[in-house]
Design brief:
alpha/beta; D-Maltodextrin-Binding Protein, domain 2; five-stranded mixed beta sheet; 16 helices; about 50% helix; about 15% strand; globular
Length: about 325
């Protein structure tokens, strides 16, 4: 075979590889980067990790860069300072920001969870629990002004317990250290998120005896939000982001807890698969995962009632002022 023929054959063999490489490069270039800050890493946010793991964001042309900012205050600071485009955090934070006065309010545009995500854990096993048992006890709660603590107080009052008079309420322990404080002997009861609650139960350190999510009803507990200025300039990104989340919500709704647990496991490498499955099942069975991204007026009013009951509501704010469900409604009707 002549040299030119050999050269031509080699070139033809290389062309598909080059084309594939160019296609990959082109795909990478066409994805729009979105910086997402989540308030904590939690199985409570399973649909979000499904959206990431199943490629739902990429299908919408988005390259979502996820950062865990550990705490509502830090998450909101990151969003307001331009360190993130979108934040996943409790809706109460948008009310706090608006009440302080701002020309660029933070707008809730898609809901991820629709109940509280904490559980009441007892140090001792209780077969026939009643809320009256908390009277006179030491209760290790969550951070003052945060949604978990406000829901906790709201539920206690619903059961005729004054959290500041009828028990010793501890709420000055940093969020990250609450579980360790209880494990070290602080408190008779503690309010914990999963998977810590289930891990404690598995290890015999505590026992889940009630769900604050079941007791408090539906609230926009964790939502996606962005500054109004960002949303005005990037309506297409907000719509695509919301569509990806809706796909994930529908996927979670239609698949088994075992399938969900397996998909999100890479985001919880230090947690055993059986624990992840237990937690997903617990949240799914009590309706914590929103099945669509719409934040409705009843939920919004319930949120403000809970904040008001805790003495943390700066002022009542209409739904339309801080909630924009137009993107959620659009993707649901597509």
């Amino acid at each position: 075979m002549k040299k030119w023929a050999v050269w031509l054959c080699s070139l033809l063999l290389l062309l598909p590889l080059v084309a594939c490489g160019n296609d990959a490069d082109q795909k990478e270039k066409t994805l729009t980067k979105v910086r997402l800050a989540e308030v904590t890493r939690s199985i409570f946010y399973a649909p979000q990790y499904v959206a990431l793991a199943k490629g739902f964001f990429e299908e919408e042309g988005l390259d979502v860069e996820l950062t865990t900012t550990w705490g509502g205050d830090k998450t909101m600071t990151t969003l307001l300072s331009g360190g993130a485009d979108i934040a996943l955090v409790g809706s109460e934070t948008s009310i706090y920001v608006y009440a302080q006065g701002t020309n660029d309010p933070v707008i809730n545009f898609a809901q991820l969870t629709q109940t509280d995500g904490t559980f009441l854990v007892s140090r001792k096993k209780i077969d026939n629990f009643t809320w009256e048992m908390l009277k006179g006890s030491t209760f290790l709660g969550q951070r003052k002004g945060g949604m978990p603590q406000m829901v906790g107080e709201f539920v206690l009052k619903q059961h005729g317990i004054d959290p500041h008079q009828d028990l010793k309420l501890i709420q000055n322990v940093d969020f990250a250290n609450i579980a360790n404080a209880f494990a070290s002997g602080t408190g008779d009861f503690v309010q914990l998120f999963e998977p810590t609650a289930s891990i404690f139960e598995q290890e015999g350190k505590g026992y889940i005896i009630a769900s604050f999510g079941t007791e408090s009803g539906r609230v926009p507990y964790t939502t996606y939000m962005a500054k109004q200025s960002y949303m005005n300039k990037n309506k297409d990104i907000i719509e695509k982001f919301t569509r990806a989340i809706y796909k994930a919500q529908q996927w979670v709704e239609s698949h088994s807890t075992a399938e969900i647990a397996k998909v999100i496991q890479p985001y919880f490498e230090d947690t055993e698969l059986d624990i992840i499955e237990t937690v997903v099942d617990r949240y799914k069975s009590q309706g914590s995962y929103a099945t669509d991204p719409i934040l409705d007026e009843e939920e919004w009013n319930n949120l403000q009632n809970i904040m008001d009951e805790a003495g943390e509501l700066p002022k009542r704010i209409d739904l339309d002022t801080l909630v924009d469900s137009s993107f959620a409604k659009k993707v649901m009707n597509d």
